[in-house]
Inverse folding.
């Protein structure tokens, strides 16, 4: 690993002292060289600060004055950090020996690679991929994110089938290495996302600027997942529906947006109706609240869209794949990445 390049591993923490106590030792042991480890605290009310100060004195502790959410929390933390590369790492991730070197080598060998992620496996079921990222993220023809190794709620076993290094549409915010110059060029995450899909938006905007996003399966980490919000939490459902609309509106070229956005309105309505039939009234309401929030923010989203395309080096960038994961998941019952045809 190039010792001249400084890496800052930045863990955004909110009341996660149990995770810090459990996972910081492996991060410290497996992250040698010109590497600093930073815990940026998002206004925690637990004993996170005393834990870091007393048990992990080599870890830098940054105190934010309130919970800014995932997106703005990282924005504020990284403003205070000066390194060549940032590694954004969830507090519930266990790293492995040599995890940094493959990602750094990949990015240094191709300066156009601005973001990469490791292969992310489940800590509880180590032979399976983990929901949040698996072996690289993609977006289907209607704007739904999916991964090599995870389609909707179905997670595959890791049999080495997705161990090739290749460009992807997005990298997981659970663990991603970012060129710090790219981070600043993009002004970090969009704080209006608050949490969920802000990393997909960031990766898409990065590709508008001409950078590439890669998966580096030679690096492996293990993730618990759902450490902040459970996957079925109504707030998470609200954020995912709302932020997906934000994502598409900001980044899709005009002709695609004119087709895909109306289709998504119909599909989201169907999803809300399914929640209603299942008696999940809170989730049903969250979908409509997400759409209402989207409509209320249209003027601001137009400004952001103009900003994205005014600086884009590829205004016709097409990140949507030809895959249709809903059709294959529910109709043809194809629920593995390798089974879904383009």
């Amino acid at each position: 690993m190039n010792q001249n390049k400084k890496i800052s591993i930045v863990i955004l923490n909110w009341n996660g002292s149990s995770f810090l106590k459990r996972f910081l030792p492996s991060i410290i042991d497996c992250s040698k060289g010109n590497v600093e480890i930073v815990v940026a605290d998002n206004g925690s009310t637990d004993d996170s600060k005393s834990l870091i100060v007393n048990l992990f004195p080599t870890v830098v502790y940054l105190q934010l004055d309130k919970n800014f959410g995932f997106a703005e929390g990282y924005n504020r933390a990284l403003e205070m950090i000066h390194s060549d590369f940032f590694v954004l790492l969830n507090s519930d991730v266990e790293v492995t020996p040599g995890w940094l070197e493959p990602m750094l080598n990949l990015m240094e060998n191709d300066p156009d690679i601005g973001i990469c992620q490791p292969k992310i496996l489940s800590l509880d079921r180590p032979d399976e991929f983990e929901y949040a990222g698996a072996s690289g993220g993609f977006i289907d023809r209607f704007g739904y994110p999916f991964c090599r190794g995870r389609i909707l709620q179905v997670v595959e076993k890791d049999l080495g089938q997705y161990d090739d290094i290749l460009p992807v549409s997005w990298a997981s915010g659970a663990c991603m290495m970012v060129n710090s110059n790219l981070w600043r060029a993009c002004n970090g995450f969009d704080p209006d996302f608050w949490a969920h899909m802000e990393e997909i938006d960031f990766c898409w905007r990065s590709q508008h600027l001409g950078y590439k996003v890669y998966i580096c399966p030679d690096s492996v980490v293990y993730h618990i997942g759902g450490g902040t919000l459970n996957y079925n939490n109504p707030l998470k459902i609200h954020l995912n529906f709302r932020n997906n609309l934000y994502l598409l509106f900001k980044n899709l070229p005009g002709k695609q947006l004119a087709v895909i956005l109306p289709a998504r309105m119909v599909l989201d309505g169907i999803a809300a109706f399914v929640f209603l039939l299942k008696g999940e009234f809170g989730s049903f309401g969250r979908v409509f609240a997400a759409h209402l929030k989207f409509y209320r923010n249209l003027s601001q989203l137009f400004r952001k869209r103009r900003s994205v395309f005014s600086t884009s080096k590829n205004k016709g960038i097409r990140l949507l794949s030809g895959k249709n994961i809903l059709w294959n998941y529910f109709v043809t019952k194809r629920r593995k990445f390798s089974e879904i045809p383009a």
